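Handoff note, outgoing to incoming analyst
You'll be picking up this chain. Sequence as last confirmed:
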Amino acid sequence: GLTYRIPALLYLPQDRAALAFAERRSSPLDEHAEHLVVRRVILMMQIENAGKIQELTLATMPGHRTMNPCPRARGGLFLFFITVPTGLSEGEQLTSGENAARLAYVCSTDRGVTWGAAVDPTDAVLGPRVGRWATFALGPGHGLHLPASSGSRTKLGRILIPAYAYFKRDVHKNDSQSRSFSIYSDDAGVTWKVGDAVGGALHTCECQVAKVSDEAGQPVVICSRTLGHEFRAQAVSDDLGRSFREGTVVPRLVEDCNGCHGSIIGFLPELQGDTTPKHWLLYSHPSKPKKRLDLGVYLNRSPLSPENWSDPWVIFRGPSGYSDLAVLGKTEGGGLWFGCLYECGEKYSWDKINLAMFPLSHVERHTSHPCELATLRPCSIRDS
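Most recent structure output, in case you need it:
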């Protein structure tokens, strides 16, 4: 029956609202995706009002299903996604070695109230390289805007859209390696380029990127789902996400048998007496190693040290799946808050999509002494 999957969350500070995106599907299967939906939620560090679900019927291509929402804001809003011929599965593309996915996006100039017609930049952006892929997809979840800084080569900053593709290793066989990379723009979305993929032998797949800081500048960390491995993968970029070092496994972040998408964000904790603030990382993912169960939030105070990830704080006990994190800003008292849009249910992880909000103070407390916080008040993306 009707299912909502693959959440993506974008916070709009000027409206004190969040846009919650998802795929509407006729069943939980990927090939039964129909189109994207969005729901605007007014936030006052608690959920004040959740508007009706808006179906993004313009974010479609004729005869194609729409998948993997990846929103990013800079002035206007970009909503990137892929389209795939209706009924065609990812597995069928991998078997044939023939990519059928297309890159697309829609824009909004009124902070998500209305959206323009879909643009298909596949040929202009991906070019002939798409012929060397068995298929590709985006994110899913939020993208990243890196503001211009002193010494930066880009006056408008850089927009990063996380992506991954199955690179064909033998054109005559069903043999490909999934690798994560970014699609980026240095001119506020006028033109887009494809970055170099994560190196190494790991099969890096669904991914997100986050900005961190150190003495050398502003590295970008990519955190990827892995295929055929029991742990997540992480890689660092020294050129603002254009390319990445070789991927390494992160034993502190477990995967289930087939892997599951997880979300990562960087933020400044603004510690008292800290004259050179450094970013921390927050990550969300099911915390059990064998099944998609017990969605956990993890904290890393030293982002370039993968061994420093905390134990998980479980924010939902039971079946849970994909998630997307966002920084929601500060309360009047100065505390930093986060939002997590996640798949969950009593029987299946795709029963519903909830939005939970929590302060950094709770993350710090419960990742040091893991326990469940009973005061979380999630809001479902479904209409009641």
